[in-house]
Amino acid sequence: MTTRRPARGYRYARWHGGPDPLAPPYDLGNAVDEIGDSVLGGSGVREALRELLRRGAEGRRGLDELRRSVRERLRKARTAGRMDGTLQEVRELLDRAVEAERRELFPDPDDAARLAEGELDALPEDTAGAVRALKDWQWRSEDARQAYEQIQDLLRREVLDSSFASMKQALESAGEQDMQAIKDMVADLSQLVDAHNRGEDTDERFAEFMEKHGQFFPDDPQTVEELIDSLARRAAAQERMMAGLSPEQRAELADLMAQTMEDMGLASEMAHLGDALRQARPDLPWGRRGQVPDGEQALGMGDATSAVAELADLEALSNQLSQGYAGASLADIDEELLERALGRPAVDDLAALRQMETELERQGYLNRSGGKLELSPKAVRRLGATALRRVFAQLDAAGRGDHDVADAGAAGELTGSSREWRFGDEQPLDVVRTVKNAVLRTAHEPRADDSRRVRIAVEDFEVVETERRTGAAVALLVDLSYSMALRGTWGAAKSTAMALHSLVTTRFPQDAIEIIGFASTAQVLQPSTLAELSVDTLQGTNLQHGLMLARRFLAKHHDAEPVVLVVTDGEPTAHLEDDGTPFFCWPPMPETIARTVAEVERVARTGATVNVFALDPDPGLVHFVHDLTERAGGRVFTPDSDRLGEFVVADYLRTRRGRRTR
């Protein structure tokens, strides 16, 4: 028995499931190219990515520019004002009160007035002691009484404002009922923080707290963690502000704060809250002396605490943007701090950098292996293609190149036969047989009219066979000695090798190419290895070993046209001994030169032409390479490093257009 599946239905509607699935992928081309340039120049992949993030890309500011803007804000914040504004204002009010009281006492002949004057003369010299001594004073002067009450109001506002941001405005006209609301808030807050520190679920309690006391927190925290973080940062900033005062100022202000807390009945509760906040955020710089503003304007305690908190935030943000510490990542950068410091556009710039970093891995350009960041094969192919594109741009700009080989297949004797066209073939088309194939293929197709047009398809093409060789074997020898890095030609040499490899593998797949790097010894290099290859600090330019490897490569492709290209910046200074160990000497020893020349002659006997690209006009090098190319029937080029790729690629194209036939 068979069952029939129900028909499947489809519905089409507006997409609401996230990013547009049909949107083009995030364009990383320029980012990969910039990373590639740094890697080819000798940087590690992680270092290259870090440099890109510092510079920025695609019109977005990088970390360095963002940090410069933060440092400018930091410079301005350091001149916000002095920390002793509250203490100075209290002193001025105290002097006004005492002076007004003296004026009131002076005309009174009573002994009580003289006794009061004596008590005023005996007031403690420190401001806090004088304020405490006058706490129960029976004021005769109304102006003096009002001035002293202003001291009390000022201290209440500033002390609470230094602990709770924007509390100053809430206390401008506070009465007994308002003060009781503040006491209730502090008590409930202490209990909430304690519960959080015990690991209890405080979501419901936090919601109740904000519903009851939300007017005291204009920044409107959304979670208990946000609330605690804000309060703890401000408490730590208050300690830093106090630490920035002189010892005398710090002692006086601490005494005034203690008196004020006692008068408001908040001393024990605020002390408990401070301990709870410190327990919740032990990572904050509690008690540490840090940067404090130092300007001309005197700041009250609340404003001074805010200024110190801003300095601390800017310092932390600057450190995050520097990414100069172990394990640094873009996830460390606090978006809220960044937005407060530089505005929303800065957060958008950071988001673009984060997206670029994520997409580089998601799209397969960077791989992580064992904690190491590496270029993927996809990225290496991109680097080769980019290097080749730049080379062709130079060729076109110089009016030379013709890299589309227009006369492909012209060389060599015709065999009189043809065969089907295959990708990469250079032989000329057999037009007659191509058209014949198309006619035969479409002869049986019905025609709606008497049209005699012939539609040619790919499978119809045939090419004329010639006797000339069907491919080339290209050995590119690249000097990777330390002197290349010192002269700044390291990146150009690697980029040139990548470009030529990309050209051969993508445009001329019938050709074979091998990249051989030589320094103290020589080695065959894959593009992925070459891209991330670091500088060989061992001394030596072992061209002999490189030519030995080239000869082995050519032997594997004996039916192909042999092409040997050498990029170097110095005479051979190293060779392999009979037992295979490398030997180095500067200036070059005759034995090194002799062994190298002997290897050149062996390569020449394979039929290969050896062309040399000398990157240093040193007479010794020029004389040597001219002698070398005369023995191998090649040529010498002396390009600048920025035109090396142009010369090498053009020479390869010229060689394969004119290669010999058997």
Automatic annotation (TrEMBL):
Coiled-coil stretches noted in the UniProt entry, renumbered to this chain: none
Taxonomic superkingdom: Bacteria
InterPro entries cross-referenced by the UniProt entry: VWF_A, vWFA_dom_sf
Matching Pfam families: VWA_2
Residue span, VWFA domain: 471-653
Protein name (database record): Uncharacterized protein, contains von Willebrand factor type A (VWA) domain
Organism listed in the record: Blastococcus aggregatus
